[in-house]
Amino acid sequence: MSVKTNVLGDLLASIVDGKVEIVDLSQVLNEDTPVIQLPPPFKNTGGFKFLPLSEYDETGPVCYWNDFVAGEHCGTHFDAPVHWVSGKDGDSVDTLQMKNMIGEACVIDITQQAALDPDYCLSMEDIEMFEKEHGEIASQSWVVIHSGWAQYKDDPEKFHNVGEDGQSHTPGITKEASIFLAEKRDILGIGVETVGTDAGIAGSFDPPFPNHHYMHQANKYGIAQLTNVEALPPRGSLLIVNPLKIERGSGSPVRAIALVQK
Ligand code: MN
After folding, report:
1. Which of 159, 160, 165, 223 is deepest in the core (most CB within 10 A)?
2. Cβ-based burial of 176 (10 A; exposed 0-12, middle 13-18, buried ≥19)
3. 213 is annotated as an active-site residue
């Protein structure tokens, strides 16, 4: 007869005594939360709207509560494979395996490159350097692109960084790197600090928005608008997301957290 080790009890004790820190990777969700802005003829999401119900008043003397209206792709949020035409036969948020909502974060730092060039895209060389230093990106990993862009999350103008050409200039990932991670590494998906998992100018790439194309084609996921990524080590933390179980939902706002061993 096997004897169960108390893995969960040990984990909980470590969380309680601070040996494992819980890092909140989520932006505050409010009516000012930046959402992606697509040019015509594309439709845009309405973002987040608060619809107050009662606040300890005659409509509800003992309670405070609200309705809200929110886009699936609003604030810190999850992209399901069906979000993209290349993944239309893949999972929506209600069908994906919940065990895939937790994985090791492999955090690749491109903050210096992105500070010099807002269009910078994580490259194969960046992945090779990361793997040389920290080992091969393992199965059940989230690849988190640490661009530093979350520093602009409360300043929509800088966050979108629309240039005189009318295009958004925000960092992303090259097509080659997306193909490599989607096909040669058994990752869960890509996490980013920007409004979407492709570069701002990636609509002009071939195919357009290649990270969405190749990740979702491989039934892999995306997490956008992460913050506090600098609190994560390059490897070894656990990233957890919990999209709402919206029937046939293409995405969902999430409260993304990470468990970091101190
Ligand atoms: Mn999205």
Report:
1. 223
2. middle
3. no
